[in-house]
Recover the amino acids of this structure.
C-alpha cells in the first residue's frame, strides 16, 4: 500500500495536533506509511487538486464559513473516492452524513480505542480501493490487447468466419429438469443462483426455480456475464447494484462473496461494465 494522505480539518488547532499525533502513532504501530496534513478551513480542501486531495479526511462539521456538511457535498463532486470521517460534538447530523457518503461519524469525546477502530477500517477500505484501481488498470490493458487481437482476427479468413458464424457465443437460455419436466430459462432473467443440499435454486425475475444439480455445471453454461462469488453462489453481473468485500447487493436479494473470490469478482465486474459500454 502506498503512502496514505490523511487530513484533519478542524478549526480547533489544539484538537488538530491531538488527532495528528494519535493518528501518526496508530499508523506507525500498524506499519502504514502516512502523510498527515492539518487545516482549519473546509474551503482549503476544495482548493486541492489531483494527488493533493486527501485519501482519508477527518472533517469537523461545525466550522466558521461553510460547514463540514456543505464542504462534504462539494468534495464528493471533485474527489468521490475520499474516505470521509465526520468528527463532531453533535449527533443529530448522522443521517445527513449518509447522504454525502460518509464512511464513519465520530462523536466527541471519543476514546483512543474508537479512533483506532475507525482508522483501521478506513485504512482497509483505502487498501481495497487501491486493489480495485489496480484491477481496473489491468483490465484496461487486457481489453486493449483483446481489441487488437480482434482486429487482427477480422483481417484473416478465420476471423471473418468466426465473426459471421457467431461461434463461442453463450447460449441465450438453459434447460433444467425437475420432476420429469424440462423448463427453458433465459439467462438474462436469472438474477443469481445458489446451491444447498444438492439442489440449485435459480432466483429469476419471474420467481424461483429449484432442481437437482451442481453449481459448477451451471457456471460452465452461463458464460462471462456470470461470476461465482462463493462456493454457494453464482451471480448475474447485470443485476449487481453495489458491493463490498463481504456482500453483493442485487436488484433482488444479496449474496456473500468470499475473501478468495473478491478480487476475481471485481475484475469480472469491471470487464462486464466495459463490455456493456462498448455494445
Amino acid at each position: 500500500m502506498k503512502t496514505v494522505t490523511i487530513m484533519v480539518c478542524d478549526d480547533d488547532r489544539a484538537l488538530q495536533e491531538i488527532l495528528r499525533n494519535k493518528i501518526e502513532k496508530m499508523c506507525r504501530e500498524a506499519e502504514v506509511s502516512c502523510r498527515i496534513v492539518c487545516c482549519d478551513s473546509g474551503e482549503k480542501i476544495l482548493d486541492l487538486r489531483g494527488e493533493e486531495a486527501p485519501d482519508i479526511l477527518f472533517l469537523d462539521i461545525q466550522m466558521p464559513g461553510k460547514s463540514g456538511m456543505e464542504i462534504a457535498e462539494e468534495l464528493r463532486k471533485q474527489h468521490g473516492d475520499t474516505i470521509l470521517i465526520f468528527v463532531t460534538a453533535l449527533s443529530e447530523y448522522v443521517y445527513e452524513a449518509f447522504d454525502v457518503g460518509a464512511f464513519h461519524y465520530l462523536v466527541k469525546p471519543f476514546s483512543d480505542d474508537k479512533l483506532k477502530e475507525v482508522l483501521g477500517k478506513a485504512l482497509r477500505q483505502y487498501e481495497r480501493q487501491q486493489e480495485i484501481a489496480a484491477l481496473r488498470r489491468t483490465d484496461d490493458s487486457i481489453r486493449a490487447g483483446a481489441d487488437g487481437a480482434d482486429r487482427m482476427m477480422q483481417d484473416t479468413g478465420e476471423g471473418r468466419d468466426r465473426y459471421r458464424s457467431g461461434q463461442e457465443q453463450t447460449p441465450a437460455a438453459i434447460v433444467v429438469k425437475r420432476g420429469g419436466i424440462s423448463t427453458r430459462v433465459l439467462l438474462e432473467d436469472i438474477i443469481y443462483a445458489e446451491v444447498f443440499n444438492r439442489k440449485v435454486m435459480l432466483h429469476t425475475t419471474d420467481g424461483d426455480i429449484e432442481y437437482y444439480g451442481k453449481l459448477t455445471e451451471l457456471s460452465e453454461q452461463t458464460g462471462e456475464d456470470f461470476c461465482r462469488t462463493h462456493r454457494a453462489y453464482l451471480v448475474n453481473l447485470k443485476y449487481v447494484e453495489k458491493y463490498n468485500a463481504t456482500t453483493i447487493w442485487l436488484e433482488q436479494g444479496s449474496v456473500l462473496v468470499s475473501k478468495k473470490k473478491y478480487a476475481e469478482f471485481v475484475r469480472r465486474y469491471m470487464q462486464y461494465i466495459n463490455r456493456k459500454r462498448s455494445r
